[in-house]
Amino acid sequence: MNVETVPTSCATTGPCHDTGTFPDLSWLAVPGLILAVIVIGIIVYFAIKGSRGL
Questions:
Q1: Rounded to whole angstroms, how far apart are CA atoms 42 and 34?
Q2: I need a labelling partner for 53 at 20 to 30 A (CA). Which of 3, 19, 28, 38 fits?
Q3: Burial level of 37, CB count in 10 A (0-12/13-18/19+)?
C-alpha cells in the first residue's frame, strides 16, 4: 500500500496551490512592530529633547 504525503494546503478537493514555496515570515510581524515603536519613540524623544535645548 503506497501512501502519499500531501501538504495541508493541498488537502482539498480543488486544484492544489502549494503555498509553502516561500518561507513563512509572519513571525516577524510582532518583533518588527516592537522595533518600529522603539525607533519611533527614540526619534520623538530626541526631537523633543533637541527642541527644548535650543
A1: 12
A2: 38
A3: exposed
CA distance 42 to 48: 10
**Residue 27 DSSP code:** G
Start-to-end C-alpha separation, the chain: 80
| C-alpha to C-alpha distance for 44 and 46, rounded to whole angstroms | 6
pLDDT in tens, 32-51: 999 999 999 999 999 998 88
State the greatest distance between any 2 C-alpha atoms of the chain, in Å, as a whole number: 80
Cα–Cα dist 36/48, whole Å: 18
